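Quick review question:
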């Protein structure tokens, strides 16, 4: 895991294109996360919990480090929803507070950075308030998180209600 983290966060890889970073998610990170969801033996639970926590953290770091180019992808919404799917599966697979607490914290960080970067807002339409209008991604994110962390979005963004 440490070697993978060093490799994916290596400074010289900043020059990779958004499509190449998407391939890193689909060919490396997502398959690894899938493997980590395989049920562990009772004696391995603590180690697996730590590994899952490290893997989720790595996913978040790589995503945030390359958010700007990734956000330009036509498939960005699908990539983001896949990340949310994995976070939901990790929460459901948690056998201790370590992973159960780490995933919501990671999601808070991802959401706040995405919001600060303007990923959830559009200013191309007439602005109805000083924050701009929310994008369909905002609604999809809210809907998805509502299924497994229903208080996360209201706690973080209570000032900006859903469009429905």
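Suggested answer, residue by residue:
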């Amino acid at each position: 895991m440490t070697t993978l983290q060093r490799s994916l966060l290596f400074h010289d890889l900043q020059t990779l294109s958004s499509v190449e970073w998407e391939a890193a998610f689909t060919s490396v990170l997502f398959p690894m996360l899938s493997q980590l969801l395989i049920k562990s033996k009772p004696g391995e639970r603590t180690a697996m919990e730590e590994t899952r926590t490290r893997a989720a953290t790595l996913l978040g770091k790589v995503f945030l480090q390359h958010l700007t180019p990734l956000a330009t992808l036509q498939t960005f919404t699908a990539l983001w929803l896949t990340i949310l799917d994995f976070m939901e599966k990790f929460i459901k697979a948690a056998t201790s507070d370590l992973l159960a607490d780490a995933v919501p914290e990671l999601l808070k960080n991802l959401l706040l950075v995405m919001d600060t970067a303007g990923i959830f807002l559009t200013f191309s339409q007439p602005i109805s308030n000083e924050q701009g209008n929310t994008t369909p991604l905002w609604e999809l994110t809210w809907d998805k998180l509502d299924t497994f962390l229903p208080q996360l979005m209201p706690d973080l963004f209570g000032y900006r209600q859903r469009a429905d």
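Why it works: Residues 125-129 have pLDDT under 50 and may be disordered. Strands lie at 121-122, 133-134.
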